[in-house]
Amino acid sequence: MSTVPVTSDDQATAIRSIHLMASGDLADLEAVYTADAVNREAVNEPPDTRGGGPAAVLATARWLRTAFSELAWEIHDSVQDGDLVVVHATMSGRQTGPFVAYGPDAGITAVFPPLGRRFAVTQTHWFRMRDGRVAEHWANRDDLGMGQQLGWTPPTPAYMPACCWPNAGCSALRPHPECPGRPLTRPERPHVPQRAAGVTV
Fold this sequence. Notes:
Layout: H1 9-23, H2 26-30, E1 33-39, H3 54-67, E2 68-81, E3 84-95, E4 99-102, E5 108-112, E6 118-130, E7 133-141, H4 143-150
Parallel strand pairs: 1-7
Antiparallel strand pairs: 2-3, 3-6, 4-5, 6-7
């Protein structure tokens, strides 16, 4: 939803690119991103988001959709200066799937299981435009605020063992059977899944 007047085609395209993260397909993204578009935020996203162009952007969208349902962005402000468009928005949704966090080396750093909670956080998105399409994107986000609303931080004793840490022998996309996310019964000795000899997880 947009609640501000749009004064240029570039602004309209940038705003549309945000909304497409919730429901757009590859053809939709190809209409608003250049073939070599760069998303600077991909440095902390899954490996398949780190290429260029619409396919990488779609990988980012799928990553978000896997964790969050009812995704929406309310647009508050949009300005343009030359080829740069800036959009201030509120992202909202409900966490209904695990959110997988990645480091700069593309390794998994944490997995946050869903509690079914809603969130709404402000963001500022920056777009470098070229020939009417997005050529580059980066953002400022309130990730701490989102984590607090979703129960990630500070984690409760009951929530901590549900987090499937890779260094504890769990796979983010294929949860290990020894990591069911059961309640923590002895806070002084949290459950740590162990790898069985000869078993790959």
